[in-house]
Amino acid sequence: MSLPAEVRIVEVGPRDGLQNEKIDIGTANKIDLIDRLAQAGLRSIEATAFVSPKWVPQMADASAVLAGIARRPGVSYPVLVPNEQGYERARAAGADEIAVFTAASEAFSLKNTNASIEQSLDRFRPVLDRARHDGVKVRGYVSTVLGCPYQGDVPLADVVRVARALHAMGCYEVSLGDTIGIGTPVKARRMLKAVAADVPMQALAVHFHDTYGQALANVLACLEEGVAVVDSAVSGAGGCPYAKGASGNVASEDVVYMLHGMGIRTGIQLDLLVETGRWLAGLLGRETDSRVGRALAK
Ligand code: HMG
Ligand code: MG
User: 52 CB less than 6 Å from ligand 1?
Assistant: First the structure.
């Protein structure tokens, strides 16, 4: 088993992290967070979500956040888009990369977006067409790849089918999300292997939540399988508002510490990342969820 020499971290804290936090840190702090992450060396930072503010009020300031950040050359700032209305808002705010999202479980898709999986894919087709025309890059998410809070087990064939559909539609990368953090390493590896039989590994990313403390082990299993893109959130913030009980994403600090410890390059300065995670946790009124963040506390 070989490990990649370099891994790209997709920092999802400003979106996946903050969308489910009870405390609203305010627009200025969100902007500051994104700028600090870029300064720490992150090259992909999911900045916000142009979803319905009635569904996710924490992301209601999406346009102001995107307008306020100091865009750095070489850094991409994808934003979540659920439909054409979201695409228009995102473009008006200056987005040049977006992420569309659906699920491998029908029950979750309905709860999260009021649409079946097929309906959600139908919503994306015009978005992808417009994005292609506008030169906008599109990432895709498949949620509930290792289990669903409503449906329970999710057949692997469904994960493969939905990932294939997103890739065929034009998503340059498909992120496989263990939305409720229920997975364990052997299952995670098996799932990735099944998807990679249909979608090239270079077009895949993994996205683990850490509800049961399995996320780092799952990341390692998938790295050994050949994936080289990992989603994570600074200080382990967040969860999904439509997945009851789901805790935050795996903490970026913990992933970076593990990768650097194995000699894998990320381009990220761990000390700056740790500082950012502790600052964010302070704004959220609690201790950081990153074990590395706590261990390296000054
Ligand atoms: P709907 O209620 O069926 O939408 O929601 P609709 O088309 O019937 O519109 C209803 C109202 O929403 C209308 O306003 C629209 O204008 C408005 P009204 O006439 O009532 O005043 N609306 C919008 N407003 C702003 N921006 C928009 C937009 N679209 C409609 N884009 C919809 C359907 C998809 C919009 C809704 O269900 C939604 O926004 N869902 C998003 C839920 C969400 O953000 N979940 C978290 C992200 S997914 C996640 O966390 C998982 C992930 O991290 C991976 C993993 O961990 O697995 C990605
Ligand atoms: Mg997530």
Answer: yes
